[in-house]
Amino acid sequence: QVQLVESGGGLVQPGGSLRLSCAASGSRLVDNAIGWFRQAPGKEREGIACITSDGNADYADSVKGRFTISRDNATNTVYLQTPSLKHGDPAVYYCAAFFSKCGSGYRTWGRGTQVTVSS
After folding, report:
1. Are residues 81 and 22 in contact, defined by beta-carbon separation less than 8 angstroms?
2. Reduced to 3 states, what is the DSSP secondary structure of residue 88?
3. Which residues, in sequence order, are bridge partners of residue 75?
């Protein structure tokens, strides 16, 4: 049974940056696309980035050009670099493994890591 654990969230000032990690255990995910999502209070969950098994990335317009998703198959970890954080970014950030490609069925979800932006 694969498990995902997110980490790296926290409190930053506007313009600050964080690197979020999504570590998998219980199974290797080299053949699975991994997505990052976020959900702010009172809002629907938003898919923001996805990386395929061979490293191709896709982004939502809200973060395109700002966030970067990457993966290290040797350590079974996916990262989300979040520079230039602004007031629209605070949310709980989740990662999820797809069964195969981005947008296919979800294999499993992590529990999330909180990102707060405040001066």
Report:
1. no
2. coil
3. none
For residue 10, is it left (φ>0), alpha (ψ between -120 and 50) or beta? Answer: left
Please report the sign of the dihedral spanned by the C-alpha atoms of residue 72, residue 75, residue 80, residue 84.
Answer: negative
Question: 92 exposed, middle or buried (CB, 10 Å; 0-12, 13-18, 19+)?
Answer: middle
Among candidates 68, 104, 82, which has minimal Cα distance to 15? 82
Contacts of 64 (CB under 8 A, 6+ apart): none
- Looking at the predicted structure, is the pLDDT value of residue 27 above 90? no
Higher pLDDT, 107 or 7: 7
65 burial level (CB within 10 Å; 0-12, 13-18, 19+): exposed
